[in-house]
Amino acid sequence: QVQLVESGGGLGQPGGSLRLSCAASVSIFGIYPMGWYRQAPGKQRELVASIATGGRTNYAESVKGRFTISRDNAKNTVHLQMSSLKPEDTAVYYCTLNYVKTYWGKGTLVTVSS
Hints:
By secondary structure, the chain is an all-beta fold. 0% of the residues lie in helices and 55% in strands. It is built from no helices and eleven strands. Strands 2, 4, 5, 6, 9, 10 and 11 form a seven-stranded mixed β-sheet that branches. Strands 1-3-8-7 form a four-stranded antiparallel β-sheet, with no helix packed on it. The model has no long low-confidence stretch (mean pLDDT 93).
């Protein structure tokens, strides 16, 4: 069983910062690839950032240089530090974990507005 719980969403100012966190409860001990997706109103869900078991990261072009994904393996937690926020970053952000299949959290809403 895998459960993912996101936190840290809310209202952010343009140019400001927010930090998302995702805590994974996994019954099988190990380190898993994790990531963040987002879905804006009327748009398809897209990959924002991912982090492999060894720590290699991957980012969407639209967030490179602004967002940073990191993980705490001891706690099975992944974070997404979002800086220089733009209104187009407004979306529901979902945490994912890959173990045999992709598991999804319920999502946390991020709204960027002045």
